[in-house]
Each structure stands twice: as structure tokens, then as C-alpha cells.
Design goal:
alpha+beta; 25 strands; single chain; disordered N terminus; six-stranded mixed sheet
Length: about 550
């Protein structure tokens, strides 16, 4: 494709762009063309591919504390990220520089063509200098490490797409959203023993443009909405107990009702009260039944390790490198990522999208089929045996896209009832000589611990109950977290339930995980990473009367 044809494509929308964006389109087309054609330096390789991602976003946020509004803010911003490739697709500069160093820059929101071109010029020029240095370092690595590590291309060949659209207007029902945040006020304002309680309602309208010198011109609009709340109190021994709850949705209309949010706040406080009164015990390991919220975090961590970039990252775990067509899960389990699916049992899925951040159509991808590893989440950074992207290249605003989960589905060919899973848990405890098993529910948070372990262990913060192996009685315990590596924990799955649920999160990009409860053969409990605090010297203020 000639430079002239690229410019024509970039400047010829399929659907008419708003007049305010015409200056931006001209600036992008001109500076991308100049970079591809003219950006060079003596002794350094020329540009063979240039791309730009531009994110325009409007944010609205409202925060509350102890039942009263603390702040409300609106912000608009435009972020630019250049991607300059030198050398050739078989060996280029990507990704020698750490992805966290590929950070976007803020540019003008106004349709001032000169200001926009000036910002683009500086960004592309700087990206070329970084790319050239990275390419030379990578050539040296090929010599020292051998060609075997570089037996796959660095940029997949993809069909150029032109999918242009008009930018939607930023119009939200803010009064309803304020009422959602207000709905948390009642429960939080009438509990005298709280250390603090905070709430947040946030909205983001995102308009993403992908332009490259191969002819791709893809626009996409996304709305994200969330409600989150946190409450904390001290137990009698001075340890901070915290509970969290989050709701995510693609549109404000998909957020829960005021009644649902209020009920969630009430449930949080009930949970916090139980945590304050719960007993403690020593860390130990035992079979465990984890509910769908905890299982979803495990499935997501597994999905992250199935990223194509992870298999080629010398500094990463490379958990599944070279294990294609090997058994990594029990035979009855299948793991699929399908960003094209809109809903599960009538509930809209947060991780759905049509195109990824590299302008590649999203595709349903079988990752594990009947326990056997079949594929990876691929951006345009290929993996040996997979020369094309499957439309999973996404990332946080201002960062390079990598293979990332969208809608993850874990399913079982022989799902078990809740009663069967609890009975099997007790049986596994008796077989292993354990007096108690574990029942782990209502995930609050999880932490990926990258240091100290090549595989990266994960700490799950959730409700933990001891289950007596003989009687089946349960006892709530506190200050203990579930810890393990995704591969070991997933490999220890014994059974899966029939209670699949949707759990959603924002992990740099919107994600939904559909998973049932899982019975694990053996997991480790560790002490929570908290230290005792001195209780307040003064009693808290008198709580206001209950609001009608």
C-alpha cells in the first residue's frame, strides 16, 4: 500500500466524523505519514510500521464518607500513545522496553490542528529514538541468546480495517447516579463502631481511535460505570477488619437499583460485624470449597498467564510456554474467552467488545478444552504456532495492548450440587487426615504477589469458614487469607459446581468471569498481612437517628 493510499483511507471515513474531529484526523494522517516516510537517522533502521492510539474520555465521579457526600468531579482528557516499529515484522524493537515505560501523553482536546500536529510530532520522534535503541539491543540479544528465542515474528499480519463512527454525546442521568451513592448513606451512618465507611459512583465515556500506516482506522465507544464501597472496623485485638463491594456495568442503566445497593451495604456491615466477633486460628493447609467469586479470581489469574506476551516474556513466569496440547486442568473443565458474547443468563457482560485496542475484531477463543491447553489470548505479538491475533490486544489507557481476558467462561461437563460439594469436601478431609476443611466465600479482594515466586502467588481476601469433617458444622474465622499459585491451585481442582455466576472487575480493561464453585484438593491459609492498631482514644460521635 502506498503512502498516498494510506492517507486517503485515513482521511475518508466510512461514517462521517464530527466536524470538530476533522483537524485531529488531518493531524494524525499527516504525522503518521511523515513518520513512516521521513523519520530516520544515520546508522539506525527505518520505520516499517507506525501506529497511534488516541483515547478521549469524560469522567464523572462522586465520593461519600460515613453517609455524606465528600466530593464530586468531572474531567475530560485526551491521551496519545505512539507505537513505532523499526526493522521488520520478523524482528523488530518490540518489546525490549518494559510495557510500563510505554506511557501515553496528554494532548490538546481542542481542534487546533497545529497544536495537535506538534504533539504528535514530538511523540513520534521520541518513540522512534526509543525504538531504534531497543532494536539494536534486541539484535545483540539474538546473538547472545541464540535465534531459538526469536523464532516467531514480532508483529502479525492483519487485514486493514476501516470502521469509523460518530462520537456519541456525553449525556448521563446524573441524578439517578447521585441517588445510588445516597442509598449507601443510611446503612453507613447508623453504625457507631465503624472506623470509616466510604462509597463511590463513577462513570467513564471512552472514545478510542486506532490509526496505523497499514490502513487500519477503527473507532469505538465504550461506557463504563461502577459503584464501590468499603467499610472498616477494629476487632477486640486491634486488627483492622475491612469489607468491600463493587458493581460494574457497561452502561449506567445496567447498574443495580437503589434497593440493591442499599441491601449490599447492609450485607457488608453484617459481614463486618461477624468478622469482628470471629475467632482466630493458626495457619494450616486443607481441602477447600471456594464459591464463584473466589473461583472467578483464580480463573482470571489463570487467564492472565495464558496471555501470548506471557509466553515470550523472559522476565515473566512463562507458566505455559511449550505446554500446548498438554493437560493443565481436570478433563471435565473447559475454559473459553468470548468477548463477542453480550450476556449470560440475561445479565449484560462487562467484558464484551467488538474490536480490540489494535483494531482487530474480537474472536471467541478456546483456551482449554476438556483439560487440554489449546490456545492463548493473542494481541498482534504472535506466539509460536499462532501467527495471527485473535482480537485480545487490550490495555489500560496510555499503555501498549497485550493479550488480555474479556469474557472468561469456565464450564464443567459434570457439575455438582452444593450439597454434593460439601459432602465431597468433608470426605477429602477425612481421606487426608484433616479435622477441618475450608469454605471460602465472598471475595473482598485479591493481591498478585509477583516477587519471591517465579509463578507469582496470589493472596485471596475473603470470608473463611472451618468445616468440621465429621459433623459438617461451620465456624467463621478471621485474619487468614487463601494463598497459592494459579497453576497449582487450578491443577488441584477436584469438582465444579452447578452454580455459575458472573463476577466483574476492572483490571486495566473491563473483564467478566463466569465460573462455578470449585472444590480444591489442598490450599494454604496464611496470616493476613495486617498489624494491630491502637483503638481511638475518644469514643466516636453519637450516630444520628435512623432516617425514615
Amino acid at each position: 500500500m502506498t503512502l498516498a493510499s494510506i492517507l486517503v483511507l485515513l482521511l475518508s471515513p466510512v461514517a462521517a466524523a464530527p466536524a470538530a474531529d476533522e483537524a485531529l484526523e488531518r493531524a494524525v494522517a499527516t504525522e503518521l505519514g511523515r513518520a513512516k516516510q521521513e523519520l530516520k537517522d544515520d546508522g539506525y533502521p527505518p520505520v516499517y510500521h507506525a501506529a497511534l492510539n488516541l483515547w478521549d474520555f469524560d469522567d464523572w465521579d462522586r465520593w461519600g464518607a460515613m453517609g455524606a457526600t465528600r466530593a464530586e468531579a468531572t474531567m475530560s482528557q485526551r491521551i496519545l500513545l505512539p507505537d513505532i516499529r523499526v526493522g521488520g515484522p520478523e524482528l523488530d524493537n518490540h518489546p525490549v522496553t518494559a510495557k510500563t515505560e510505554y506511557l501515553g501523553i496528554a494532548v490538546s482536546l481542542e481542534s487546533d490542528e497545529f497544536a495537535l500536529r506538534h504533539a504528535l510530532w514530538r511523540a513520534l520522534d521520541g518513540a522512534y529514538k526509543t525504538a531504534s535503541a531497543d532494536y539494536l539491543r534486541k539484535q545483540a540479544q539474538v546473538v547472545t541468546r541464540g535465534k531459538a528465542e526469536y523464532d516467531t515474528d514480532d508483529l502479525s499480519a492483519e487485514a486493514a480495517l476501516a470502521c469509523r463512527a460518530s462520537r456519541p454525546a456525553s449525556s448521563w442521568d446524573l441524578d439517578r447516579l447521585r441517588r445510588l451513592e445516597d442509598a449507601i448513606s443510611g446503612p453507613f451512618s447508623r453504625v457507631p463502631w465503624l472506623l470509616h465507611a466510604e462509597s463511590h459512583v463513577g462513570l467513564r465515556r471512552l472514545w478510542t481511535r486506532r490509526r496505523d500506516t497499514d490502513g487500519t482506522a477503527v473507532d469505538k465507544a465504550e461506557d463504563w460505570a461502577r459503584v464501590d464501597m468499603e467499610a472498616a472496623a477494629l476487632s477486640a485485638d486491634g486488627l483492622r477488619q475491612s469489607v468491600y463491594r463493587e458493581f460494574y456495568a457497561r452502561t449506567p442503566a445496567d447498574l443495580p437499583s437503589e434497593g440493591t445497593v442499599r441491601a449490599a451495604a447492609d450485607d457488608m456491615l453484617k459481614d463486618l460485624g461477624e468478622m469482628r466477633a470471629a475467632v482466630t486460628t493458626s495457619p494450616f493447609n486443607a481441602p477447600a470449597l471456594v464459591d464463584p467469586s473466589v473461583a472467578a479470581a483464580l480463573v482470571f489469574a489463570l487467564g492472565q498467564r495464558l496471555s501470548g506476551e506471557e509466553q515470550r516474556n523472559p522476565a515473566g513466569a512463562q507458566t505455559f510456554r511449550g505446554r500446548l496440547m498438554e493437560k493443565i486442568l481436570p478433563e471435565e473443565l473447559t475454559l473459553v474467552d468470548d468477548p463477542t458474547r453480550n450476556a449470560f443468563r440475561g445479565r449484560a457482560l462487562f467484558g464484551r467488545y467488538e474490536y480490540d485496542d489494535q483494531g482487530v475484531p474480537a474472536r471467541r477463543t478456546v483456551l482449554v478444552e476438556r483439560g487440554v491447553l489449546k490456545g492463548f489470548l493473542l494481541s498482534r505479538y504472535p506466539v509460536k504456532g499462532f501467527v495471527r491475533s485473535n482480537g485480545h490486544g487490550r490495555g489500560p489507557i496510555g499503555q501498549m495492548p497485550v493479550g488480555t481476558p474479556g469474557n472468561l467462561f469456565l464450564s464443567s461437563e459434570r457439575p455438582r450440587s452444593a450439597a454434593d460439594l460439601l459432602a465431597r469436601l468433608r470426605a477429602e478431609c477425612r481421606r487426608a487426615g484433616k479435622s477441618h476443611g475450608l469454605w471460602v466465600r465472598k471475595l473482598r479482594a485479591y493481591v498478585q504477589q509477583q516477587s519471591g515466586s517465579a509463578q507469582g502467588s496470589i493472596r485471596f481476601l475473603a470470608q473463611v469458614f472451618l468445616v468440621d469433617a465429621e459433623s459438617g458444622k461451620t465456624l467463621r474465622v478471621r485474619d487468614l487469607d487463601l494463598v497459592g499459585t494459579p497453576l497449582v491451585m487450578a491443577g488441584g481442582i477436584l469438582e465444579a459446581g452447578a452454580d455459575a455466576e458472573v463476577n466483574e472487575a476492572y483490571q486495566g480493561s473491563p473483564v467478566a468471569v463466569v465460573s462455578p464453585s470449585l472444590l480444591l484438593a489442598d490450599v494454604e491459609l496464611q496470616r493476613s498481612q495486617t498489624k494491630p492498631e491502637k483503638a481511638p482514644l475518644l469514643p466516636p460521635p453519637t450516630a444520628p437517628p435512623v432516617r425514615p
